[in-house]
Design a protein that fits this description.
Oligomer: heterodimer
Strand content of chain A: 15-25%
Distance between the termini of chain A: 42 Å
CATH class of the largest domain in chain A: Alpha Beta
Shape of chain B: globular
InterPro entries (chain A): CO_DH_flav_C, CO_DH_flav_C_dom_sf, Diverse_Substr_Oxidored, FAD-bd_PCMH, FAD-bd_PCMH-like_sf, FAD-bd_PCMH_sub1, FAD-bd_PCMH_sub2, Mopterin_DH_FAD-bd
Keywords (chain A): FAD, Flavoprotein
Protein name (chain A): Xanthine dehydrogenase family protein subunit M
Number of domains of chain A: 3
Organism (chain A): Adhaeribacter rhizoryzae
Largest sheet of chain A: 5 strands, antiparallel
Domain FAD-binding PCMH-type (chain A): 1-222
Helix content of chain B: 10-25%
Radius of gyration of chain B: 27 Å
Number of strands of chain A: 12
Radius of gyration of chain A: 19 Å
Largest interface: A-B, 39 and 41 residues
Helix content of chain A: 25-40%
Chain lengths: 331, 749
Amino acid sequence: MNSFTYFRAHEVAAALTEKATAPQAKFIAGGTNLTDLMKVNVEQPHHLIDIRRLPLNKIEETEENGLRLGALVTNADTAYHPLVESRYPLLAKAILAGASAQLRNMATNGGNPLQRTRCYYFYDTATACNKREPGSGCSALNGYNRIHAILGTSEHCIAVHPSDMAVALTALDAKVNVTGPQGERVIPFPEFHRLPGDTPNIDTNLSPDEIITAIDLPTKGFAENNAYLKLRDRTSYAFALVSVAAALELEGNIIKEARIALGGVAHKPWRKPEAEAQLVGKEANPENFAQVAETLLAGAQGFGHNNFKIELAKRAIVRALLQAAKMEEIS
Amino acid sequence: MEKAFFDQDNINDSLDRVDGRLKVTGKATYAAEYQLPNIAHAVLVTSTIAKGLITALDSKQAERAPGILAVISHVNSPGVPAYGSSPAMPERATLGTPLRVFHDNLVYFSGQPVAVVVADTLQRAKYAASLVKVQYEKEPHQTDLEANISRAALPANVQRDKNSRYHDYDRGNPEALNTAAVKIEATYKIPTEHHNPLEPHALIAHWEAPDKLTLYDKTQVIKGTQGNLARAFKLPIENVKVQAKFIGGAFGSGIRVWPHVMAATLAAKKVQRPVKLALPRELMFNSVGSRPETIQKLSIGATKDGRLTAITHEAIAHTSTYEEHTERTVLATRVLYACPNVRTRYRLVNLDVNTPTWMRGPGEVTGVYALESAIDELAYALRIDPLELRLRNHADSDPEKNLPWSSKSLKECYAKGAEHFGWHKRTLEPRSMRQGQFLVGYGMASSMFGVHRNNAKARAVLQADGKVIVQSATSDIGPGTGTAMTQIAADTLNISPALIRFDLGESTLPDAPGQTGSTTVSSVGSAVKVACEALKQKLLQLAVTSPHSTLYNANPADLSVADGRIFKTQNPAVSITYTEILKQNNLPQLEVTEESKPGAEWQKYSMSAFGAHFVEVHVNPITGEVRVKRVVTCAGVGKVINLKTARSQSIGGIVGGIGMALTEESVMDHRFGRYVTADFANYHVPVHADVPQIDAFFIDEHDPHVNPVGAKGLGEIAIVGVSAAIANAVFHATGKRIRNLPITPDKLI
């Protein structure tokens, strides 16, 4: 870890001004990922702007009958918030499937979607990684890639995004409110993260000089029929091999609307509108769920150690949809 | 959980851990926590290549960083006198030579310390370490066991030692396998595993004078570390002090003096200040050994009614290029079952990695996983209940040594475990049991671990206030050594445990072996017992020979002892207390030191602990996730000194076995020869959610032969066989036999 200077901002404007004077500075909120990366010299910022004290720490109802999650509300406070629990249980489940209680007590809503990949090679500075050092090469492509992507990959990067929360936010069509030197703007959550392409060093469409101020949840929360299924190498406290956020609107046994987002399979939470459309008007049953799984995984490609994820993801989708339709007990 | 306690009312009490309060209140001082004045902090720079030469090491920038005291490498190391001269390049694979830290420019494995940076703060040392630039000349490396299996060979150290137990072993006619009525053959693989105790390895090295060294180290082997450092630096042994009063787990990683210990010691010599070095978690994967990756082929032949006719067991494990680590992988196969024809083969492949080492249940864990999986496979081939098959082949005596067992309760373990588990509810066919959507599997396995015993000394000192200080240079990596020794001393002296203080963890105390191989109670416990017995005899002697004693001239045979008071058995009112004896004889204290050693009993008996594990798993049939739902374990380990700590040790062993079976695997990227799973995000030790209810039982086993205490040891046997029981349960649930651990969901879909 290198020496760094530190500035604590109390207002958004002050944080942005500080950033303008030190463009290489990093914002820090919960710090659950950044400090880890600093310890292993993956990140070596010389200046930190602490935004933890910014007044973005409330969960409030919006005028559109949705919910606004302040960027600095902790993941724990969000997951256990009565309005989140009752109206957006899918989000609560996804948050609680991630990390540990201690980490969730520190991690923030704005920080969670910004966490970096857990690719081994990204963390090991002795190996090449295009995300860490653009142009150096991708060690995972022909290396040990058990936890890597099967969808939306590029020859430059096959890393996956590790967040569980982001998978649910993608399925729920959340919106990210950001503020920067150019003012405020809104990024739909499904467009927040990027595929690696030839710039895998850029994870999101957030500009480096912008700050997330809040995440908005729309009216529709699919509170009745939803599931977050996370498959991993141990029962808790592990990143997803594959995860599925599934939400259904049912009329009897007929699907009126479906949302499916996958985690652990791509550089961003994976969602496919045509797959969801395929379920509309259909009966909720294992056969139809299996068909939609095929659509979602169309074009999936393994890199050796992660080939199993294609089949595992399909099965996980079926199980998650069965759980959302209350046709399978939750394990 | 309660029933395990109530069931054991008759064996022993359950004294709380004597150091429990210190540990939970943070007052127990671990190696890195000693506050020494002027302490400096060391951070290692480690190699990024697996094999080759350091061609340049540029530390200029690091040396200019703030707070830097020194950057030490082979270029400027103060040197270890015993290292001698560097071997010529072609013969670098010197057998049995520990890595010589900062001795030359050779790189033997990725992660090898190539420099150490010392600064006034940890942060400054860490930063400067990132500035050290090392250039290498790479050579092709080999780190892949399977790719190098053709180089598997009988270890050279075995070839040199005709008494080694690792030689090729044939009993009867192993070729009988070919004519067996029923035969199974299978290959089992376990990956490299790392111990990963909660407390990473750490030490403070302090040269108190140019020829006086004190180490505060996380070590399981206090006297061994003292001797090792004294030899390395050519110091009189009494000039080296080693302290390890508290250890946050080790599982075998603390048995050796590892390179980081030498690096810190050299750094302290160079900067002439106490130097603290604590390994970050990622270096725990390249610094303190591992369970070796092992490939095993098992073949078993049997008659149609399930009598074993032949077993062959071949094991191939990895070692480093500079040392041979051997372990008892194939030995249990020679003795666990009555089988007339047995063949074992043990081979090593040297790879460009750091040397593996003993990890809880070393050897037996690996071998019994394969053997007990194969026995299970045979049971299905025979359509015999796996427990019944084991009973039919019970070894009533040691079939290798042809000696009687000193004691053996395996049948009782089977019976008690099966009863508490409800084994009779198991249906024979795989995939035949369900609960809701889950496939249910019942599996079991036997467990064994030989009894071992080393020479050990203990001192017992009765003080004027009636307290007794008992001392031995043993250690406690978690089982509760101090607690057990306190109980043994209290029982022997017939006083309250509250009057005993047991000192351990310092090299100035009487000699004790390392805490290895489940030997501590067997060895040190015996020494404590013998020392306390001698102290009691001295007191009895004084009681009957001191003219002022109320028991003057009494016949010792007519006397009894209770609560620190010697009295006439027929007339308890005539008595004298221990402290009165001291007072009457003007003794400020009374001290004895005794040594206890194994003897001729080892030629008359074969000594081993046995046990059995029963496991229920649930498997999701769609996504292949395995959940261990409950475990019942039962062991015959001789005398159980403290039921509570024993039970904890059993539970810990089961948890380790769950990790081995389902989650733990150190994966190496062979292109770089580096572990890619070198952190707790990717090396999955079981978490609470992976661990179900575990019921641990013990058979009330009286063994007068093993040692004066009658205890066989429990640390290792607790984990031996667990992974087989789980893998067997997974087969029973799914019909899929996974022969390469860990059993992750991808292997079951």
